Amino acid sequence: MILTRVLLIALPVVGLMGFAAGWVWRGDRAEGNEARQQASVSAAQVAQVNEARATEHAQAQTLATIGAKHEEDRTAAATVPAAVVAGVRDGSLQLRDDLATCNTARLSQAVAGTIERDQAAQLRAEVAGALVQIGRDADDHVRACQAVIRADREQ
C-alpha cells in the first residue's frame, strides 16, 4: 500500500518533471532559433550598410575626379586671354566684324585718328581674349555639371 501511494505520488511528479524539462528544452531551442534569425538579420543589415558605404565612396571618388578636372580646366583657362590677344596681334587669329560693331558710341575708323585706331585694335584683341575665356569657362562649367549628372544617372 505504501508502494502504491509512492507510485501514485511519484508518477505525477515524474510526469510534471518531464513536462517541465520538455518545456525548458523547447524554450531553449526557440531562443536558439530566434538568436540565429537575429544574427542573420544583423548580417544582412551590415551587408547593406557596407554596400551603401561602398556606393557613397564610389560616388565621392567620381565627383572628386570631376572636380579635379574642372579645376584643371579653370587653371588652364587663365592663359586663354593672353593667347587670343597674341593670336589677334600676330594675325594668326581674326575677329569677326560683328565684334567691332558692338561699340556704337565710337566714331567710325575712317574718321578716327591713328592713335584711336591703334587703341581700338588693341582693345578689340583684349576684349576678344576675355570673351574667349568667358566662353571657355562656361563650357568647362557645363561639361563638369554634365559629368556630375552622368555619374549620378549611372549609379
Notes on the protein architecture:
Helix content is 85%, strand content 0%. It is built from four helices and no strands. The protein starts with a helix and ends with a helix. The model has no long low-confidence stretch (mean pLDDT 77). The chain has one domain (2-154). The protein has 155 residues and is mainly α. Helix 1 runs antiparallel to helix 4 (114-154) and helix 2 packs across helix 4.
Structure in a nutshell:
Helix content is 85%, strand content 0%. With 155 residues, the chain is an all-alpha fold.
Task: Break the fold down into its secondary structure elements and pairings.
Blueprint: H1 2-77, H2 80-90, H3 97-100, H4 114-154
Helix pairs in contact: 1-4, 2-4
Give the overall silhouette. Answer: rod-shaped
Number of strands: 0
* End-to-end distance: 85 Å
Low-pLDDT parts are: none
Give the C-alpha Rg.
42 Å
Count of spatially separate domains = 1
Q: Total number of helical segments?
A: 4
Helix content: over 70%
Category by helix and strand content: mainly alpha
Q: What average pLDDT do the residues reach?
A: 77
The ordered string of helix (H) and strand (E) elements is HHHH
Largest sheet: none
Strand content: under 5%
Note the main attributes of this structure.
single chain; 155 residues; mainly alpha; 0% strand; rod-shaped
